[in-house]
Amino acid sequence: MLVIFGAGASHDVAQMGNIWSTPTSGSLEHWPAASPDEFRPPLTPQLFRGALIDRLLDRYGAASHLIHDARMQVARDAQAFEVEKFLANYAGSSIREDARAVLATRFLLRDYFWACTQYCLSQLGPGHANNYAGLLGRVNRWCRPRNEPLAVVSFNYDLLAEHAFGNVMNKRLEALPWYVSDSDRLLIKPHGSCNWARALYTGADEVRARYIDHVTAAQAALREWEWTERHSDEIELVPRLGSGALPTVPALALPIEGKPGPVCPQTHLDALARTLDGPLSVITVGWRGADDWFLDWLGEHTARLRARALICMAGSRAKDDGHQLAAKLQGKLTDCEAALHLEGFSKLQTSTELAAFLED
Prior knowledge:
Number of strands: 11
Shape: globular
CATH class of the largest domain: Alpha Beta
CATH architecture of the largest domain: 3-Layer(aba) Sandwich
Number of domains: 3
Oligomer: single chain
Radius of gyration: 20 Å
Strand order of the largest sheet: 3-2-1-9-10-11
Strand content: 5-15%
CATH topology of the largest domain: Rossmann fold
Number of helices: 13
């Protein structure tokens, strides 16, 4: 069983969708009290909008002109906006300030999705008993009696999939090898995660000096942005944002030299490939299939396998997006039968489509 989560899954993480319009008087560590909607994980066209992004620009002002340009493009045509292609133009620029803007955006998005995660899992937000946990628990109950491997693929920078996977599977994800330590229960994050980072180097030496907090460490890296050309290939997990921070580069799959692709270790993809040795069942939630490299990879590793898919979408373009993803999967997977659920993550849990997909 392969479960794939995209931005729409985290956006619809709450079992009760109206939680985002409920005023709160609470606050989070590092964050003052604010509208709950500020901390709702965004869909792609909403990625660079909102008061929380504006507050983060107080920290990472070097990204301000990039954020402005992104907002202008979204205003012109939100549905046509592709964040990977937009950032590729900046990443491939020979202008020094544009290169620094991409680095600043990495830090901004790291803090942004860490805040979204912290809010969503707190008593102020949906908490741990959310739609991720519900779906993974149900799918795991289907897989166990059949000795069926379960691989979870999340393209999201937030940590909601990690927490649900860890809770349901009773796994602690304290180092990257632990994501794939069980051959039949895997978590793959091709685009990286807000708690993944690479150590920086100056000259031949790794920078291990500690800073007051993660913000001052990031600002030090931005002042000496050439450091980012000399970073470790090894990804490490950052347990939390806070004091004693090391200057690192967030391991997020923003395009480098116009070539977006995976940042997760190759060993993770190799582990995923080893689970793809029988008839394939795929559930996608809020994923539009914009990651062509992953679709190609999946097609190469499932060339002779029969497949079936359940595609969950929401919103005004759900039907069109669902049919487009179904066509992509059917173009890559052998004899792929695709069913659609077009009412979002919350309603998927009790839908007839999911019940039919998981029936004996």
